[in-house]
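Entry type: protein chain
Record version: 2
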Amino acid sequence: MCAAAEIGILNRQGMRALADGNTANAEFLLTQALRRSQTRQLTGFMVKLHNNLGLTLLLANRPAEAAAHFQSALVFTRRYPDSKLHALVGRHLAEARLREKAHP
C-alpha cells in the first residue's frame, strides 16, 4: 500500500472515531497519520491532519493544543489567503482561542 493511501485510511479512521465520540482514539490515529505525512513531506495531508487534530483536541476540551494545530495548518495555507481552507482553519483557530480564554 502506498503512503498516501495509508495516511488517508488513518485519517478516515480517526475522523470516524471522533464522530463516535472517541477523542482518545481519534487523536492517536490522526497523530500517526500526521507523523507519516511529515516523514514523507506530504504537505496537503499535513494541512488536513493538523486541522483534524485541532478539531479533535477542541472537542476534548484542550483548546490550547487545538490552537497550536490550527496555527500549524495556517502556516501551510498562507500561500492561499483567499482559499476556503485558509478561512476555515482561521475560524477554527479563532474558536480555539476563544475557548482558551474562557477556560484557561
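Comment: The mean pLDDT is 94.
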